[in-house]
Amino acid sequence: MAPAFVQTRLFRFLTVGVGAALLLFGLSWLLVSSGLSPFTGSVVAYAVAVIVAYSAQRGWTFGGQHDHAHAMPRYLTLQAGCAAFSGLVSHVAVARFGLSPFAMSVMTTVMTSTVSYVASSLWVFPARN
Fold first, then answer.
1. Suppose 109 and one of 1, 25, 95, 100 were both cysteines; which one would form an S-S bond, judging by CB atoms 3.0 to 4.6 Å apart?
2. Does residue 129 lie in a domain region?
3. How far apart, in whole angstroms, are the C-alpha atoms of residue 122 and residue 44?
4. Domain count, the chain
């Protein structure tokens, strides 16, 4: 039998979040390393990660309990803001601090994932009593 924590909603949220963060990291690194600008590469990578993450968060993490009409607009609003933030962080990391695509991807992934996790928990998919 799996440990109790593995069966919790928090574990599922973190699993999806880590998966989306790894997808964001890998895609942003690949796209920027392939020649896309840091801003464009990170925004494209974020868009792909958003689609995967919303589907998994709503369906698996929260058991489909939140209506698409309510959750999806909030999720898309949050992620649009995070995508822009991701692009800004990536641009500043490279243009201002001269970071490599790898270091840029680490910084972007950590910062945007943290913002997304907190806002998703409190606003997009709030706990139901």
1. 25
2. no
3. 26
4. 1
Q: Note whether residue 100 is domain-resident.
A: yes
Half-sphere exposure of 3 (CA within 13 A, CB side): 3
**Would you say the pTM of this structure is higher than 0.85?**
no
DSSP 4: G
Whether 1 is in a domain gets the answer no
Domain span holding position 80: 11-124
- The one-character DSSP state at 126 is P
pLDDT tens over the chain, length 129 residues = 678 888 887 889 889 989 998 999 999 999 999 999 999 999 999 889 988 999 999 889 877 788 889 999 999 999 899 989 999 999 999 999 999 999 999 999 889 888 887 888 789 988 776
Domain-located, residue 62: yes
Contacts of 21 (CB under 8 A, 6+ apart): 49, 109, 113
Residue 84 CB burial class (10 angstroms; 0-12, 13-18, ≥19): middle
Ranges of beta strands (E only) in 33-117 are: none
Retrieve residue 13's tokens. 């949220």
